[in-house]
Amino acid sequence: ADWCAVDIVLPGGTLPQRLAVAHVDPAKVAYAHELADRYPSDPDALTGVPNVIRTGQSELYPDIPRELLMRAAIDDEHRRIIETLDLRSAMVVALRGRDRVFGALSFIYTGPRRYTEEDLALAEELARRAAMVVERRRLEEEAAIANTAKDEFLAMLGHELRNPLAPIRTAVQLMALRGDTSSVKERAVIERQVDHLVTLVDDLLDVSRITRGKIELVREPIDIASVITAALEMASPLLEQRRHHVAVDVSRDLGVSGDAARLAQVFSNLLTNAAKYTDPGGHIGIEASRVGTDVVVTVTDTGRGIAAEILPSIFDMFVQERQTSERSHGGLGLGLSIVRSLVTMHGGAVSATSAGKGQGSTLRVRLPALASPAFVIPLSPVVNEPKDASPTVTRARVLIVDDNRDAAELISELLESSGYETRTAFDGPAALTLARSFAPDIALLDIGLPVMDGYELARRLKELLSSTPPKLVAITGYGTAGDHQRATAAGFARHLVKPVDVHKLIATMSELLAMR
Question: Whole-structure pTM over 0.85, yes or no?
Answer without folding.
Answer: no
